[in-house]
Design brief:
Helix content is about 80%, strand content about 0%. The chain is mainly alpha-helical. It is globular.
Length: about 220
């Protein structure tokens, strides 16, 4: 799986399909942190913005190869499930790279260091967004949804649902907790939401694998 993840990341970087997501998110960060504000509220906003960006990034990464190339990769990886897991891991790494930028950006913009607790809470919030976005993006990729237009529309609907749903999305709960600070939410609560996102990623990746097998 590690080898597939490295290959998928290298192929994705060569394709330059990451540029729209990167430029969009950097632009959002520039707007969000143009004027220094409360740390946790800023992290809540950038974590919320990271969700649809990660969905788009994961979708683009899964669809970097054409169907024939993807079939060859699956054979070399030892099966379609292994290839799917490798690409999913690669998408998580790409999302975490954007999360790291989001954590550092407000400190660079304001010239002040955040506390360890603030950084921990911000890291958990952005990781929750990355895990959730990766799960949703993979669910929209080929061969589950073959047509690019349908895949993009489905990804947009799922992103919006994850942002506004108070019962089905750990991202919504995370953003609301950070937006209400002060007082700061308990780190344990944010950690539980991150664990929920990890479980969601596991469940939806398994569902994606089953759906993909049926579509083949």
């Amino acid at each position: 799986m590690t080898a597939v993840a490295r290959y998928a990341l290298a192929d994705f970087l060569r394709s330059q399909r990451y540029l729209p997501q990167l430029v969009l998110y950097l632009g959002l960060l520039a707007v969000l942190h143009a004027v220094p504000g409360p740390v946790l509220q800023g992290y809540g906003a950038s974590a919320g913005a990271l969700l649809p960006v990660t969905v788009w990034l994961a979708l683009a990464l899964h669809n970097t190869e054409d169907p024939l190339q993807a079939a060859v990769t699956a054979v070399n990886a030892g099966g379609r499930t292994r290839a799917l897991l490798g690409r999913t891991a690669a998408a998580v790494l790409g999302g975490l790279a954007l999360a790291a930028v989001a954590l550092v950006w407000p400190m660079a913009a304001s010239g002040t260091l955040h506390t360890a607790t603030e950084l921990t809470d911000g890291l958990l919030a952005h990781t929750t967004a990355v895990l959730t976005g990766t799960a949703l993006g993979g669910l929209c990729a080929r061969p589950v949804i073959r047509r690019p237009g349908h895949a993009f529309a489905t990804a947009a609907v799922l992103s919006l649902t994850a942002l506004v749903s108070r019962t089905a999305s750990p991202v919504n709960s995370t953003v609301r907790l950070l937006s209400a600070a002060p007082p700061a939410p308990a780190t344990a609560t944010l950690l539980a939401l991150t664990a929920w996102a990890a479980a969601l990623l596991a469940v939806l990746t398994a569902a994606t694998s089953r759906l993909a097998a049926r579509r083949h």
